[in-house]
Queue: 2 jobs
Job 1
Amino acid sequence: MATASAPLKARAKVRAFALGLPGAGEEFPWEEDAVIKVNKKIFVFLGSEGNTETPGISVKLKDEEAHGHALAVPGAAPTGYGLGRSGWVSIPLTGGDVPVELLCDWVEESYRTIAPKKLVAQLDAG
């Protein structure tokens, strides 16, 4: 059971971090699958809270270095449904290879890509 709880704890920390960003809110557009939005636009896909088999997150990374680093995570891949062409990367949480702090950095980068400039300025000021 300990192996299943680590990815869920990582997901919970990423969720809490994302919801702490200015103007962020959680929605469930596909039943149990959660997304975090800012200004009605998704900046992180969290999937289902109870998903213990394939937990992961998807973020939009425009910075080439961050994008490449994220894709280097074992099991990571461009996000499906054509989102990968726009810089979206799906990162599994099962390997435990990625520190939560790095996941949160990627979530913040995704937020900065999606959020209006005034909210990014508010983040920088805080």
Job 2
Amino acid sequence: MPGRFTVTAPDGHTLLDDRTEVTLERSTPNGGGCPPVVWQAALRAVPGEGLIPYRPLPRRT
């Protein structure tokens, strides 16, 4: 699915306008047996690279 990320300065000047394809992932934030079921994707804007898939860093235990 296409995704677009735009950053606009207070004066209306476009600072970043990039597009990429994203894959939505199924998520059940309240657990597998409880609603809602949501579909989400996350991107990170990296200077010089553009939009890349966002993956959280592993948690330390």
